[in-house]
Amino acid sequence: MKPYPFVIGITGGSGAGKTFVLDSLKEIFGEKITVISQDNYYKVFRRLKKERWLRAVYDEPAAFDNKELAHDLKDLINGKTVQIPVYDFKTHSRLKEEIKVKPTTIIILEGIFTFNIKKLRDLMDYKVFLFADGDVRLSRRLVRDIKERGQTVETIARTIDWYLNVVKPRQERYIVPMKKYADLVINTNHGSREAVKILEAKIRDYLTSGKFDF
Question: Domain for residue 1, yes or no?
Answer without folding.
Answer: no
